[in-house]
């Protein structure tokens, strides 16, 4: 027993055991610390890469929106250098595959550097397409080691804005890809059924279906409104409001005194002077032979355009400078064979122009004089006025002076177009106008009807009431996503309707 007690009291070697345990603990802590630091460094680098990939995707989105601001129909004109290949699949489509030019990932191709960024590829097919049949096959480098790809879906009846999916990543690295989607909607004058720089007066028997705006006052005399009315001045008179519509003004006559707060779609009063740019843009585009534009000079007193359902337009020259005053349709001479509707959507006439027929395509007709509605005017695919087609065709009419129904229209009239009268108004010539005046030898035909589907932007309110006993003013819903080419925008020209991040897969 004494031997055992002596052995238990002996402390030789204890220090060594403690040292071994201490060294082992320090070694373990060192390994854990190094692993933690290494892992944190890796996570930090990964976070930086992911954030940079997100910023690359945002850069691609911003770049595309800036192009939409410069050319509001950019998505219809071009396949962007960073965009995935498209395939035409619209009605009667050709199944043609169109790939953009100048793709990278070669860092020497910087899509944001104006010195070296590649040009887009022209898109001359329909307003619908299959995007990315080959996946994300085109990328544009930002010059900082990152790149982006775009996938673009055009507006449609189900989505009124341009849908842009932008994917960002480190060049040729799929591990930390970020994907964002934005729906961007253009704000144009065609968002409204009618806009007037002056007052608007609705006579008994009138029915309106869309948003109405006036920089002055809106007055009703027994009509029916299916859309909200907005006036900087007042909204007054006898009107039957339908489907929850009402009036909003700045005078307090409707009990709503802050016009530009919600639910108003505007942020400020509309400045008509900004619309003048559209005329010069169309004039330049019409003279551009590469875009198929049609420029009509003053070699005739006026021109007549008859749109054909096969996508062409027949151009005729007319001797009279004021054909709207005649009780019969003018005799005009064909100038050449029917021409294709311009791919850039621009027709410009130096003199008054008569418009009629069936439109296939997307086109705007502009003149510094008058636009005259020569007869029924519909779109290819319409089954009469009551069964309109949507999403493929659109017509814009721009006149510095009046948009008029002439004296030779003495029966029912159905016409479809978005229109702008910069300095005057619209109406039947029998009503007379501030500039040029005039009246027809008769006062219309009892019981006849005029039906317009589209939108109207006017310097001041006009009238068809002395020529047509019944007038229906219908808004064209397709204008929410298919505005006429070169038509004026409203401030802000583009707004983000939706924004979200998508899974990288």
Question: Could you report the average pLDDT, rounded to the nearest whole number?
Answer: 83
N→C terminal distance: 77 Å
Oligomer: single chain
Using DSSP, what is the number of strands?
Answer: 33
Indicate the topology.
Layout: H1 2-9, H2 14-70, H3 74-77, E1 78-79, E2 86-88, E3 97-98, E4 121-122, E5 129-131, E6 140-141, E7 146-153, E8 162-170, E9 178-188, E10 194-196, E11 200-202, E12 206-208, E13 212-214, E14 218-225, E15 229-231, E16 235-241, E17 247-249, H4 276-286, E18 294-296, E19 302-307, E20 312-318, E21 332-334, E22 339-340, E23 346-349, E24 353-359, E25 362-367, E26 371-379, E27 394-399, E28 403-405, E29 413-421, E30 426-428, E31 449-458, E32 470-475, E33 489-502
Parallel strand pairs: 10-13, 10-31, 11-14, 12-14, 12-32, 13-15, 14-16, 15-17, 18-23, 19-24, 23-25, 24-26, 25-27, 26-28, 27-29, 28-30, 29-31, 31-32
Antiparallel strand pairs: 1-4, 2-3, 2-5, 6-7, 7-8, 8-9, 9-33, 19-20, 20-21, 20-22
């Amino acid at each position: 027993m004494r031997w055992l007690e002596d052995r238990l009291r002996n402390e030789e070697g204890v220090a060594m055991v403690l040292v071994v345990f201490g060294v082992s603990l320090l070694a373990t802590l060192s390994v854990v610390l190094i692993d933690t630091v290494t892992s944190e460094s890796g996570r930090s680098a990964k976070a930086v890469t992911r954030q940079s990939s997100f910023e690359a995707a945002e850069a691609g989105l911003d770049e595309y929106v800036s192009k939409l601001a410069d050319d509001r129909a950019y998505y219809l004109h071009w396949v962007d250098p960073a965009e995935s290949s498209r395939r035409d699949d619209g009605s009667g489509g050709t199944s043609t595959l169109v790939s953009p030019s100048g793709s990278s990932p070669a860092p020497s191709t910087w899509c944001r550097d104006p010195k070296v960024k590649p040009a887009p590829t022209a898109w001359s097919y329909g307003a619908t397409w299959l995007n990315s049949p080959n996946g994300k096959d085109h990328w544009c480098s930002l010059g900082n080691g990152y790149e982006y790809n775009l996938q673009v879906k055009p507006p449609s009846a189900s989505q009124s804005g341009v849908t842009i999916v932008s994917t960002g990543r480190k060049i040729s690295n799929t591990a930390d890809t970020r994907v964002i989607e934005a729906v961007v909607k253009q704000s144009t004058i065609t968002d409204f059924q009618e806009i007037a720089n002056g007052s608007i007066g609705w006579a008994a028997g009138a029915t309106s279906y869309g948003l109405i705006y006036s920089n002055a006052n809106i007055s009703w005399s027994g009509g029916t409104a299916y859309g909200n009315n907005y006036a900087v001045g007042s909204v007054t008179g006898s009107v039957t409001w339908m489907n929850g519509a009402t009036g909003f003004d700045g005078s307090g006559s409707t009990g709503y005194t802050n016009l530009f707060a919600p639910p108003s779609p505007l942020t400020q009063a509309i400045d008509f002077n900004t619309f003048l740019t559209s005329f010069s843009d169309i004039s330049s585009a019409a003279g551009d032979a590469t875009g198929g534009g049609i420029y009509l000079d003053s070699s005739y007193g006026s021109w007549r355009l008859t749109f054909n359902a096969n996508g062409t337009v027949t151009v005729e020259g007319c001797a009279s400078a004021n054909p709207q005053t005649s009780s019969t349709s003018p005799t005009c001479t064909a100038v050449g064979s029917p021409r294709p509707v311009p791919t850039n959507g621009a027709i410009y006439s130096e003199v008054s122009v008569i418009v009629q027929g069936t439109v296939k395509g997307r086109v705007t007709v502009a003149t510094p004089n008058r636009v005259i509605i020569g007869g029924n005017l519909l779109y290819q695919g319409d089954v009469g006025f009551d069964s309109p087609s949507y999403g493929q065709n659109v017509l814009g009419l721009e006149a510095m002076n009046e948009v008029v129904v002439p004296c030779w229209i003495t029966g029912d009239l159905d016409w479809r177009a978005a229109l702008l009268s910069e300095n005057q108004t619209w109406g039947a010539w029998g009503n007379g106008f501030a500039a040029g005046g005039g009246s027809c030898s008769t006062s219309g035909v009892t019981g006849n009807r005029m039906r317009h589907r589209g939108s109207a932007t006017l310097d001041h309110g006009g009238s068809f009431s002395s020529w047509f006993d019944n007038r229906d003013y219908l808004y064209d819903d397709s204008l929410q996503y298919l505005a006429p080419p070169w038509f004026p925008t409203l401030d802000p020209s583009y707004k983000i309707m939706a924004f979200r991040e998508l899974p990288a897969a």
